[in-house]
């Protein structure tokens, strides 16, 4: 009997090599191909059992796609595949220099609304985050490649920080835009 | 001599029966039913040739009237004439108090979570009123198409929360309609336009109806409609435009008794007419003649703009957020599909086109496009187009979470996650010997429980007593393709499935639905029985048909002889009981057949997935070698 897809790993599921570098276009294409096979719409006339199975499989495929698409989720998934217990919620970096740079960024965010043009200021913070993010992703890829998993985990912790910062910037941009429109 | 039948290439060789399926747009102001006939999609008219059915229900002395017939009573008998009932779907009394500023009904206090409107024939819930509208549309469809329906796709605003979706599904159940899928209105519109134009790329659907607003960002690619993000406001629409104009009229005319239901309806109607007239004219004369108030005045486009701009701005804020959630720049949007009667208002078109800086698609009637899209999907879902590549991938509009210590919400599933989706969350006990726990499920983006929408409270019971902190209760939140939440729980150490008591915060419980069903069939025990029996028999046929088609496709490859004979025995058992009249026995036998097929169904799903991936590499190889040869 064939191995249950619900227990396969996400890379296997999409027939992609286990690596931090994922061809996002290929991922998207294969995601669509799988959806065409298992999506509940294909079983609208089927038995309740088929509907249930289809729902479980589609949920699984959706989670797999979300995980592989997102740089932070993908990185922590790779670490988990190495058999290490890793939960994004419970880890935090202790790198003093990094934490300092994060504090500075937060301060900038706090004062952004007093700037002449808050949107321009936010754009520059956004750019700063993006650059740092690219650097951390690069760092993770290298550590992971070299089997230095403790280093790799440290990169993920930092990536997680940046993800939160990016969300906050987005919220601020939304706030500023709201104010401008009223 | 009988002629030999030859199937068209690509079509199944077994004679395929065309199944009847419809798309239903259950709107705030108007509702429609559409169907695909001989390959063309069209909305179905009533005997008078009217396609739109006003979403108005009148509870009169001589029975219930729906549509134009009910609309006549809107002014003379406002308390028994229910308009815009969609705004009350899945809502509690508190929400309604804010909503009802527009309408003023007489709400009854009840024990149920669901508010009921007092009418002369008794108290009715929004679900029952909507069921009346659905019954009328169903009757129209059956009369036009000439036979019973196999199912329907019913559209809902993309921004509808779980309670509002569930209420819509309950209304369909009451009306005796099998729901193939709840489809988001903007997605339906995208289907109607997408299939029409064959366009590809990223588009936006701006859907402003009578009472709801949706914005969806979609990517269209080879028959796949993938929703990237959705946003909106489930209580913003043309009614609010009318209300803003009505408020201005009341001020201008200095109407004293504006709280009177009949006066209010009259003013609202005049406001609507003025708004509609201004789509053509530069200005419009208004004559108010209610009770002891007479006023004459003019409303022009610039005044209208002043009154409506704040409302339209609200829609544009949602557009911004949806774009950000989708990770799409405004420049990437190729087209904006305009849906809903309120997009006829010129100001809306101007402001939307200015915002997106691109072409607005308005070629399909904005009132009919949603029903048409729903009918197209219904036709595919019911199985009339086995080779169709069309696939709709949608998202959940609002985050789902649970209450944690301190009245905070912890999000479990984030908004704009592709559905279906499932997320498991582990809980533990805080007291020795604890065997039950309560989970409060909420929906919305806010941090505080008090700012979020309460969906339900679940009580998990029956897990074995252990020391505090030792139990591991895994609660799985599953959102299905209709955007509806299903919760299940099990204690991981013992493997005990916890039983779940659901107390929906704003919905009807199963027993209430059952009760209404009984009521609606005039207490006739036999009718109820024959209806349930018929439903079970249809279900049995569906299970058998699905199994036979599966066996014909891959039964030999995936099953050993022994497995096959087990399944065939269970199949035979069902064939034997299905035409008898024992409902319970049919139910049990279906269950037994399903159990026998458990492994097989899972294996099929797996093998489909594997084949898709293998097929992929073969195709690549094949196209690669072709390229080399040429």
What is the gist of this entry?
Chain A is mainly α and 182 residues long.
Would you give an account of this structure?
Chain A is mainly α and 182 residues long. Chain A contains 7 helices and no strands. Chain A has helices spanning 10-13, 24-38, 48-69, 71-81, 96-111, 118-145, 149-181. The termini of chain A are far apart. By secondary structure, chain B is α+β, with helices and mostly antiparallel strands. Chain B contains 15 helices and 29 strands. Chain B is globular and about 85 Å long. Chain B starts with 20 loop residues before the first strand and ends with a helix. At the A-B interface, helix 2, helix 3 and helix 7 of A face helix 9, helix 11, strand 20, helix 13 and helix 15 of B.
Strand proportion of chain B, as a percent range, falls in 25-35%
Strand tally of chain B is 29
What share of the residues of chain B lie within helices? 40-55%
Oligomerization? heterodimer
Radius of gyration of chain B using CA atoms only: 27 Å
Chain pair sharing the greatest interface: A-B, 45 and 56 residues
Sketch the major β-sheet of chain B.
6 strands, mixed
The string of secondary-structure elements of chain A, in order, is: HHHHHHH
User: Which range does the strand content of chain A fall in?
Assistant: under 5%
Shape of chain B: globular
Give me the Rg of chain A, rounded. Answer: 20 Å
Low-confidence sequence ranges of chain A: none
Main sheet: strands, sense, barrel of chain A: none
Q: How many strand units of chain A?
A: 0
**How many individual helices of chain B?**
15
State the low-pLDDT regions of chain B, or none. Answer: 4-15, 618-630
Mean pLDDT of chain B: 86
> Distance between the terminal alpha carbons of chain A, to the nearest Å?
63 Å
Helical residue percent band of chain A? over 70%
